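Protocol step 4 of 6: structure prediction from sequence.
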Amino acid sequence: MKTGLGLVFLMDSVDIGILRALGENCRASYQEMGRNLGMTANAVKKRVNKLVESGTIHNFVVYLSPEMADIEFYLAIVNTVGIGIEEKVLEKVVEDPHVFSTGRLSDGNCIVFAEYEGSENESKFEQFLQEIDGITGVEIHNLLSPRGKKVDFKPLQIRVLRCLVEDPRIAATEIATKTGLTPRRVRRIIKELLEGGGLNFVARLNLNAGPGIIYYAQIVWNKNRATHTEVEYWLDKEFAGEYFDSHISASAPMMLSLFVVEHLRDVELLSMKISQGPMIESVKAIFPFPTKKNVRLQRSKLEQLLNAFG
């Protein structure tokens, strides 16, 4: 992985731990991450700086939580008429504002992530995709995700939130200077916003920025032998140095699990080991190519909320 300083480093399990922590809460402190990872705050800070310089951490952002934005997430695996047509198909797909990420896959299919307001929008999403020339088949999954809560923001929270939207990792003392509030009050308000359930503070990542190989394992498991939580726990325990995260279907025992490995040969080895899991029925390795992205509905609805406060 090349950094802005011309240095090269390989992402390891510590980096993965940092990225996962910042993906869940991008305001996590270096001290907090250091305690969880068994290292000093300064060592964590150096790691984070390298991940930012390399482009692996694209940026930090604040969204409304799914419950607050009243949205559901969907994943579609799209079949096309043949090699070479995928880019034209994706150009049409990404025109829909509900679609926030698309990309080609190594098996000739495409992957599409979308968010819709309200529930029971799976049929709308499927109809939209099926009407695009070049698409021959669609497999759609409603995705499980932490929902958060519906909350009412208070005026002082909005004042602090405006600063956090501009810079999600801004120091409380700097917010105090901008807002005229005391640092102590700012810290209390930030704590309320983090714990209230109405917001997601996340790091947007680009794992393709590194030299490692990024791939999805499409995993189907026996739901009579394990829950999705148990499968995730098993992956996290058995493949701690490679496993990153999963997109989990709410309607079928299927997950698309993301792994980061150093060599291509590791993909075959990991797939074989995963397939030997007592609850696993099938595993398919898929390599994603760079994606196209839209503004998230969670973000645009947050900006609408802030504008409504004037």
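Step 5 (inspection) to follow. The chain is about 40% helix and 25% strand.
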